[in-house]
Amino acid sequence: MxxxxxxxxxxxxxxxxxxxxxxxxxxxxxxxxxxxxxxxxHFQAKKxxxxxxxxxxxxxxxxxxxxxxxxxxxxxxxxxxxNYILACGGGTPLNLINQKILKQLGxxxxxxxxxxxxxxxxxxxxxxxxxxxxNNPISSFNAVLKYRNPVYEKLADITLKCKTMDPEQxxxxxxxxx
Length: 178
Hints:
The chain has 7 helices and 5 strands; from the N terminus they run E-H-E-H-H-E-H-E-H-H-E-H. By secondary structure, the protein is of the alpha/beta class. It has one domain (5-173): 3-Layer(aba) Sandwich (Rossmann fold), CATH 3.40.50.300.
């Protein structure tokens, strides 16, 4: 029996969670939000309830990425006989260890929206911690995108250029390609 395992990657705000939930609902399979799994694992380790942003701010990027890798390794162990959609954090694929694990976990789909729309979505929630220069958010955004885009494209089995598509349209596109 073949299992349906889809990994969604892309920048913060590209629609991974929204699309992932919709797709999982349409296919009647489990949706996994990596950030939620990370929070659970952190709580088990530290007995302190924090959301993923708080974990990143309080413990730093190195701890966060190690925790992320640990969560992904745990998913590999329990994912064998399951169908699922996994929505990753925007930085998850930047770690080489995570890249290998993501490839083990399933078919990797990069959601690549319109650059301007993505910038507006990201900034609408405030300037994110991963922007190097908060005083020049557009410059930071462009630098992050320039670095991440080739990583995402190399890792992806499918790159979906979803420039003007709404989540329902993106789900339909994914369904046509899986």
